[in-house]
TrEMBL record:
<protein>
    <recommendedName>
        <fullName>Coenzyme A biosynthesis bifunctional protein CoaBC</fullName>
        <ecNumber>4.1.1.36</ecNumber>
        <ecNumber>6.3.2.5</ecNumber>
    </recommendedName>
</protein>
<comment type="similarity">
    <text>In the C-terminal section; belongs to the PPC synthetase family.</text>
</comment>
<keyword id="KW-0460">Magnesium</keyword>
<keyword id="KW-0210">Decarboxylase</keyword>
<comment type="function">
    <text>Catalyzes two steps in the biosynthesis of coenzyme A. In the first step cysteine is conjugated to 4'-phosphopantothenate to form 4-phosphopantothenoylcysteine, in the latter compound is decarboxylated to form 4'-phosphopantotheine.</text>
</comment>
<keyword id="KW-0456">Lyase</keyword>
<dbReference type="GO" id="GO:0004632">
    <property type="term" value="F:phosphopantothenate--cysteine ligase activity"/>
</dbReference>
<feature type="binding site">
    <location>
        <position position="166"/>
    </location>
    <ligand>
        <name>CTP</name>
    </ligand>
</feature>
<comment type="function">
    <text>Catalyzes two sequential steps in the biosynthesis of coenzyme A. In the first step cysteine is conjugated to 4'-phosphopantothenate to form 4-phosphopantothenoylcysteine. In the second step the latter compound is decarboxylated to form 4'-phosphopantotheine.</text>
</comment>
<feature type="binding site">
    <location>
        <position position="162"/>
    </location>
    <ligand>
        <name>CTP</name>
    </ligand>
</feature>
<feature type="domain" description="DNA/pantothenate metabolism flavoprotein C-terminal">
    <location>
        <begin position="10"/>
        <end position="217"/>
    </location>
</feature>
<feature type="region of interest" description="Phosphopantothenate--cysteine ligase">
    <location>
        <begin position="15"/>
        <end position="220"/>
    </location>
</feature>
<comment type="pathway">
    <text>Cofactor biosynthesis; coenzyme A biosynthesis; CoA from (R)-pantothenate: step 2/5.</text>
</comment>
<keyword id="KW-0288">FMN</keyword>
<keyword id="KW-0285">Flavoprotein</keyword>
<feature type="binding site">
    <location>
        <position position="112"/>
    </location>
    <ligand>
        <name>CTP</name>
    </ligand>
</feature>
<feature type="binding site">
    <location>
        <position position="148"/>
    </location>
    <ligand>
        <name>CTP</name>
    </ligand>
</feature>
């Protein structure tokens, strides 16, 4: 059962939520990005705050308005996001919803790359830090660390493997085989050490409320 209307079971708890894409600079005017809208992460930050949590929302570049009663920190790149998460510690709860770019350009060009008529600019990639995996092993690890996994196939298998690999407590496995990225509804499975819960297709706001209720049960 969800907590009664107006109940604040997470009062006194600190939460950090990441949301949105990251932008990885190529040169001063170009970047690598992805299609994350940030809506699911923003909704989760709002839902946790509605249950009384003190929420820091670390947001990649999105145009969404900040939810009420949430401390919003805007970042661009994965490395800035990692630093902002670190700065938000200690926290009791972490929900890493951001679609962090897996790769950045190894060396950002200091000036705009120009067509020289001959060769193409070589873009050498470097792997970004895994913020979720690092947080799961952190000496100030939040008591509950939740990750997201957007998958197009074998959704629960991939998510279960990620749960083990990253060392977090729960993974919300998001089935993105349909038109989900940027859309209003999400089909998710909650994967924990105890098993897998299949949730019905729900608006992102409702996924957020259910997840916040589950977090309150675990942490209150
Ligand atoms: N994540 C992160 N830092 C990264 C990459 C991912 O914190 N550099 C987090 C995401 O916020 C999410 C979870 O890890 O909570 C899973 O992200 P996902 O992209 O599904 O996993 P990857 O390990 O990057 O695997 P892949 O993209 O290859 O499926
Ligand atoms: Ca990834």
């Amino acid at each position: 059962l969800p907590p009664p209307e107006g109940a604040r079971p997470l009062a006194g708890k600190r939460a950090v939520v990441t949301a949105g894409p990251t932008h990885e600079p190529i040169d001063p005017v170009r970047y690598i990005a992805n299609r994350s809208s940030g809506r699911q992460g923003f909704a989760i930050a709002e839902a946790l705050a509605a249950l009384g949590a003190d929420v820091t929302l670390v947001a990649g570049p999105v145009t969404l308005p900040a939810p009420r009663n949430v401390r919003r920190i805007d970042v661009e790149s994965a490395r800035e996001m990692r630093q902002a998460v670190e700065d938000a510690l200690p926290a009791d709860i972490a929900v890493m919803v951001a679609a962090v770019a897996d790769w950045r350009v190894a060396e950002e060009a200091p000036t705009k790359l120009k067509k020289d008529g001959a060769s193409l600019p070589p873009l050498t990639l470097a792997e970004n830090p895994d913020i979720l995996a690092e947080l799961s092993m952190h000496d100030r690890r939040p008591r509950l660390v939740v990750g997201f996994a957007a998958e197009t196939d074998n959704v629960v298998d991939h998510a279960s493997a990620k749960l083990a690999r990253k060392g977090c407590d729960w993974i919300v496995a998001n089935d993105v085989s349909g038109d989900v990225m940027g859309g209003a509804d999400n089909r998710v499975h909650l994967v924990t050490a105890g098993g897998v819960e299949d949730w019905p297709d729900l608006p992102k706001s409702e996924v957020a409320r259910r997840l916040a209720d589950r977090i309150a049960k675990e942490c209150a």
